[in-house]
Amino acid sequence: MKILVTGAAGFIGYHLCEKLVKDGHVVIGLDNINDYYDVNLKFSRLEQLGIDREKARAFNEVVESALHADKFSFVRMNLEDRDALPSLFEKASISKVCNLAAQAGVRYSLENPEAYIDSNIVGYLNLLECCRHHKVEHLVYASSSSVYGLNEKIPFSTEDTVDHPISLYAASKKSNELMAHTYSHLFDIPTTGLRFFTVYGPWGRPDMALFLFTDAIAKGKPINVFNHGKMERDFTYVDDIVEGVSRVLTQPIENRPKYNIYNIGNNNSVKLMDFIEAIEYSMGKKAEKNLMPIQPGDVERTWADVSDLIKDYGYQPNTKVSVGVQNFVDWYKSYYI
Questions:
Q1: Which one is catalytic: 169, 183, 262, 315?
Q2: Is 237 a catalytic residue?
Q3: Threshold 0.70, pTM exceeds
């Protein structure tokens, strides 16, 4: 099948495109390659997928090649472009869509809220409209554990109320779920939202804790440890996320409701200090720690209940943090040192 993956130059998007191509699918990757973090890392990911960075720089200029590629092609495009995106759908016979494109980051949403509305709301609506008018078989989209807000019930279940987000990023992700529900109901579009829990691994984002900690330790700089280290996260290795996304995206959905939501997490909660110890072990070097207060928009603990994912897809992420961190450190050293 021909699958459109938005956010293809991003961390999860790159890994998903690589897997889908290996599994024999024809993939069109879409990304606007914004400068929220180092664009060279994004171009390097695309190079791993066989895309020349000079060709990838041009906006909306490689749509024709995307129609004839037999494995992977790339289009640089803004998701909110109301001319270019419908044109792509009109020209390409897209079977399924995985939307991973979004303005990322909880803390950045406090500084630049407009970026979240443009990409995560306006762009997402544009994509829904394209799916509606071009009879896409299934839209799978990235939601986030951040929608649970200050939920105190552990582990987090998709049955829990998620009406109290504490960041605009979380609010935009909850909005995506509501918009998908509306389109599934009104236009009979199958949609599945996947709430990701703290994804980490090789080629990870430079603004995420694992990258920041590893980079600081490598350079002999102190690391900032928020909430004085009293944080817990359901750290989920990127290969486990991609396996889950791939199963949801490619398996038949005839016997399931039109609208679905799943958690994808490792089904356990790891203390931040234990996570840092795993990094120190892999780096062979101790970190100097700056203990700091919790940041606005952060929560103290996350933990995914993945029972629905197990029931419907027979899948549960299971990579140990020690293994995943070592894989990241090995990649970091090969790429940066």
A1: 169
A2: no
A3: yes
